[in-house]
Design brief:
Layout lengths: L2 H8 L14 H11 L6 H12 L3 H5 L2 H11 L2 H10 L17
């Protein structure tokens, strides 16, 4: 990924004058790891690798579907939706508010 793309992804969201303080990417990674705390399958290990190697919060946001599927296999769909929805505040300030919708 080009260095300019990384810096562009780190800029505040355009059109959001009251952007809240953004959570650092390492804390976002930690939150995603906590979401998978009871998932031990090989799929979970692959997702953890992808969490650890993601370059931007937007890349981490795109892993929600994989997280949901992994959690729903380990627990159930209701628990997966609850955990994914609990992550919404984590991405506040990194993504447009319109994208931060619950499942």
């Amino acid at each position: 990924m080009a260095l300019s793309s990384i810096f562009a992804a780190m800029r505040p969201v355009a059109g959001a004058p009251d952007t809240p303080v953004r959570m650092p990417i390492e804390q976002i990674r930690h939150q995603l790891h906590q979401t998978l705390h009871d998932c031990t399958s090989i799929d979970a290990q692959r997702i953890i690798f992808r969490i650890n190697t993601a370059d931007t919060p937007a890349d981490l946001w795109l892993l929600r579907c994989d997280l949901y599927q992994c959690i729903s296999r380990t627990r159930d769909q209701a628990e997966a939706a609850r955990r994914i929805n609990a992550l919404l505040h984590t991405f506040s300030g990194w993504l447009p508010a319109a994208q931060l919708t619950p499942i």
